[in-house]
Design goal:
Blueprint (H helix, E strand, L loop, with lengths): L2 H29 L11 H14 L8 H17 L2 H5 L2 H17 L7 H8 L2 H15 L9 H5 L12 H14 L5 H5 L2 H10 L5 E4 L9 H5 L11 E2 L9 H5 L6 E4 L9 E2 L1 H21 L13 H4 L14 H8 L4 H7 L11 H4 L3 H14 L19
Antiparallel strand pairs: 1-2, 1-3, 3-4
Length: 395
């Protein structure tokens, strides 16, 4: 197995892990609101929130500092590796790739829109970017949220999906359905984050160069490009559409003909390994997020102020354990103290602070009884903890 094949597999594994991880984070928020909403992990949410940050020194509702950190990291990465975030980090882009792989396996080919129509539609993401930034400035809200396919993806199975996120769901369906035929249609034509990253990408430190003297004009690089860039006719790929996915470089059959390099200085440039683009991008994000997590500027869940055994109860009465106390159950589930007096014969005040093991109460049976109380009332005990998921309420 050659090194390009290994790099391609590693890129697939990394993107798959990121998709699984972000999907899990989204589901955790749907289950328990102490975990932030998807907006807290979206760099475009950070971009929208900059207006509120500038005008009122606060963040938009549902947006956390994590979004601002991700935005800054994404821009910083673009200044080094161009739109590598889109090609090597973005889970929505990878989700389209997965559908594209399925489409190619069935149809045995990929399709592209006619050249002129394709070029016109590629400019659509820039008006989309300006539209939502303008609306965010005017309304001081996450204007893109109802239309965002990534937000809709994280609300699959939610009761809000066909009401609040219907348009986003339609865009998601069209993007994934279109990806069966055309590579990354949302990335090409509609993604406002892609439009924004095109700007710092012009200054990007790395770029793809083609050596015409060794090029055999096979066209494999063009066919392998998910953004349909005409790589084979360019000495240097300067297009803002390039997402630095390294696919064209890996696909080239003549070693050294296509390669990433630094900008020319006095007629010379330095070759950059394709692996550096992938792992450099991933490394920047890991370093920044690790540092921000350690300084508690990047929060993966809200700080409830509860001890671990108490926080466990937020997942529902089935998590009541022998180490919990009646006082904790009363505080979390808003159960009246008389319930323990009448059901378990607890009379003295100090007994409410004893563990169920000390009281001889079966914690599992208690959990089942409290679950039934909520079911009889038509309530979900986890709904007691709905809220902003630890994000700043902002303006």
């Amino acid at each position: 197995m050659n090194k390009n094949r290994i790099l391609s597999i590693l890129r697939f594994i990394i993107l798959l892990c990121l998709l699984v991880f972000t999907t899990a984070q989204g589901r955790l928020h749907q289950i328990l609101k102490i975990y932030p909403a998807v907006d807290a992990f979206c760099p475009f949410g950070g971009l929208e929130s900059l207006w509120a940050l500038i005008r009122y020194q606060g963040l938009l509702r549902r947006v956390a500092w994590s979004s601002i950190i991700l935005l800054a990291t994404t821009v910083g990465t673009a200044l080094v590796f161009r739109r590598s975030f889109c090609g090597n980090i973005c889970p929505l882009g990878f989700l389209q790739e997965l559908f594209g792989m399925g489409g190619k396996a069935v149809l045995k080919r990929r399709f592209n829109l006619p050249g002129r129509l394709d070029r016109i539609l590629r400019y659509a993401k820039y008006p989309v970017l300006l539209l939502f930034l303008g609306l965010a400035w005017k309304t001081l809200a996450l204007a893109i949220r109802p239309y965002d396919p990534w937000v809709a993806y994280h609300h699959l199975g939610s009761g809000e999906l066909f009401s609040e996120y219907l348009i986003g769901l339609i865009i998601l369906a069209l993007s994934l359905g279109g990806a069966l035929f055309v590579d990354r249609p949302f990335c090409r034509y509609l993604c406002p984050m892609g439009g924004f990253l095109a700007l710092p990408s012009f200054l990007g430190f790395s770029r793809i160069r083609r050596k015409s003297e060794t090029c055999i004009d096979c066209g494999i690089c063009d066919a392998s490009c998910p953004m349909d860039i005409d790589v084979s006719s360019r000495a240097t790929v300067k297009s803002p559409e390039c997402i630095s996915c390294t696919k064209c470089v890996q696909a080239c059959p003549v070693e050294g003909t296509l390669e990433f390099s630094t900008p020319s200085f006095r007629g010379k440039s330095q070759r950059l390994p394709s692996a550096l683009i992938l792992f450099g991008t991933l490394g920047i994000f890991l370093i920044v997020l690790t540092a921000a997590t350690l300084t508690e500027d990047f929060l993966w869940k809200a700080d409830t102020g509860l001890e671990r055994r108490q926080e466990r109860l937020l997942w529902g009465p089935q998590r009541i354990g022998d180490d919990n106390t009646p006082a904790e159950v009363i505080g979390i589930y808003q159960i009246h103290p008389d319930y323990f007096v009448e059901t378990y014969g607890i009379e003295r005040e100090e007994q409410f602070y004893m563990t169920f093991e000390e009281l001889g109460i079966n914690a599992r049976e208690l959990g089942q009884n409290i679950t039934k109380l909520f079911q009889d009332a038509g309530m979900d005990p986890r709904a007691l903890f709905a809220g902003g998921g630890g994000c700043s309420e902002g303006h």
